[in-house]
Amino acid sequence: DGISFQVKAGDTGFEKLDVNMGSITVGMEQFALTSQNLNVIVDNQNQLTIKDMKILQGGQEGRSTTLSGRVSLDESGEFGLNLNGSMNLYSLSDFFPDFSFGGEGLIDLQLKGNFQAPLLYGSVSVNDGFIRHKETNLTFPDFNGDLRLDGERIELSSINTRFASGIVLMDGFIEMSWVSMEPLSYQLTLQGNNIQYPFIEGVDTTVD
Question: What SS3 class is residue 125?
Fold first, then answer.
């Protein structure tokens, strides 16, 4: 809605560029973000600093996150960013097109490393979510629990979800490449009782 620039110089030359923007919108197929109160500073050390930028998902006040931190503009491309708030998980479908997602997530994440080797740390708390693999239609609704992120590793511990006719607990890990947005390896276990699922077409099967 508005933009202002402030350039500061001293005896040694350029010191910093201070940019303030009212709002800006970025959209993808299912992922539309509007940022408010965008304030970025570029200093004479080639550091870009983002100050508490509020991001509204789909323009909804109830689902917002705050982004803050720094990005190096030199060859290293190193960054340290913090992302905190809430989001609708359907947006993840833009990044993982083989899956559909839903539900609410509370996020507390730290982005570190550089653009060639980004790392994620922190947690995502999921409430009433679901995951569906589009090709197989394998679906896990009523997905509730916390995901822990440690660099390139996503830890799942005692996640409650529903599979076919029963409630199951999901544990394990996924090793991710945040550059390609693809899993490198994974190990997942499901524990439940009296699960009815047609593992063989036309045959009803009950397993524990």
Answer: strand
